[in-house]
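Hi R.,

Quick one: here's the Spore germination protein sequence you asked about.
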Amino acid sequence: MFRLRQKKQQKTAGQSSEQSGNQLTIRELMEKCKASKDFVSFTKSGRHPFTISYYKSMVNPDLVHRDLIPHLTKNASMSLKELAGEIPIENIEHTKDIQKIKESLLIGSVMIQPDAKKADCLLVPAATAEKRQISVPETEFSVIGPKEAFVEAIEVNVNMIRKRLPIPELHVKEVKIGKLSKTRVTVLYIDGIANQENVNTLLQRISDIEYDHILDSTYVLQMISDNQNSPFPQLINTERPDRVAAVLAEGKVAVLVDGSPSALTGPTTLVEFFSAFEDYFLSWHVASVFRMIRLFSVLFSVLSTPLYVAVLTFHYEMIPTDLLGTLIASRSNIPFPPIVEAIILELSIELLREAGARLPSKVGQTIGIVGGIVIGTAAVQAGLTSNVLLIIVALAALASFTTPVYQMSNTIRLIRFPFLIFAQFWGLLGVSICTAFILAHTLRLTSLGRPYMAPLFPLRMTDLKDALFRLPFSRQGLRPMQMRPADPSRMNFQRAIQKNDIEE
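And here's the predicted structure, written out as C-alpha cells:
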C-alpha cells in the first residue's frame, strides 16, 4: 500500500511538474533558438504588437518582407484565424503544440505570436528553395534516351516521376526517420498494379529504422535489405527518373530520400543489375547481344585471374603446347609464384581506381591512363610480373566496367579476391568450391521477400523474355510474375501483334 501510494504521489508530482514545465516550454524553446546566430526574433510595437521568429538561414527573406510583414502591419488587429486567411501563403497552421512549433521552425517556417509569452501562434511556411539544377546522369549515362537525373530536392524528384506517370493511381507515402536529421522518405507505387504486400513490407522496414541521422538513400538501402551481411545489393540504386517510372509500371516500389540524388527500386533480381536502361531504346536484337556481352564480361572479370593462378599452380598440363613456350618465356625471370604477382597487379588496379575516383575528374582520368601504362610497363621490366598476366588483369578490369549498376560493379571487384585465394589453395577445385558458395548464397537471397535469382530460380519461362535477353515489346504483354503484380497484364496481346495498315 505504501509503495502504491508512493507511486501515485510520484505520478501526481510528475504530472504537476510537466504542467508547470509546459508553461515555460515556449520560453525555453526561444532561449535555445536564440543561442544560434542565425535565429531572428523581433517584436513589432504598436496598439496590436506581435512577435516574428524564424531562422534566417532556412527562410526566404523576399517572401517574409514582401508577402508577410506588410499584411501583418495592415491587419494587426485581426485574430490569428482571421490573419491566416489574409496572408497570401498556403498551408498556414494555427497551433499551440510546442513540438510542432519546434519542428516547423527548423524546416523553414515563420512563427507569428500576438503574445511572446504564450505558445498560441501562426506557423507560415517560408522555406528557401535552394536546389541544384537538373543535370545529365553521371553513373548511368546513355547515348540514346532522356538526359535527366535526380537532384537532392525530393519535391523535384517526385515531379520528374509524375511527369512520366501522370495518373492518380501513383501514390506517394511519406515517413520521417532519423532522430536528429528528421529525413523525409517517400515510398512511391502505382495502386492497382503494385503488390500491396511489397508496399507494406517496405513501409514497415523504413518506419522501423532506428538511427540518429539519414543522409542518403544508401543508408536506407543498407538498413532495409533482407540480408545486410551480403555483398550483393538487394535493391537497385538509380539516378534515372525514366528507369524509376518504368519499374513502377512493372509493379515495383520506389523509395526517394530527401537530400539524395538517387532512388531505390525493388523487389529486384540479380539479372536486372546487368541490364542497362538504354537497352530499351535500342532494337531488341542489339539489346540482347549487349546483355550477353555484359554477362560474359562479368564472368571473365571474376574468373580470368583465378583460372590463371589455378592452371599455373596445379594444372599446367592443361596449357596447350604452342602457348606453353610463351608462358615459360614470360615467367622465366619472375621470382614470385603466380598468386603473388596476381595480387600485386590486382591491388595496383584497385589503387588506380580509387585514386581516379577521389581526384578531380580531369586529374583522375590522367592518373588512371598514365598510371596504368607506367606502372604496368615498369612492373614487367622490373621482373615483378609477367606480361601475360598484365594483359589478363587489364582485360578483367576493363570487363568489370561494363556493369551498368555501380553497386554491383563494387561487388564484382570484391568477390574476385576470394576466388584468387581458393584458386591458390585448391586450383580448379577451389574455383569450383568458391563458385558453389557464391551460387548457394545468391539462391538463398531475397529482395523484399522475393527470390533474388528469379526468373532463373525458381524458373519462370514467361519472365525470361526480359532477363538474359530482351524480346520485342509486342512479346512482353505480361508484367514480371516474380513481383506478384496486382494487375499482371500490360496490353492486349492480340491487338499488339496485329498490323492494321491502310490498304491502298
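The chain has 15 helices and twelve strands.

Cheers,
M.
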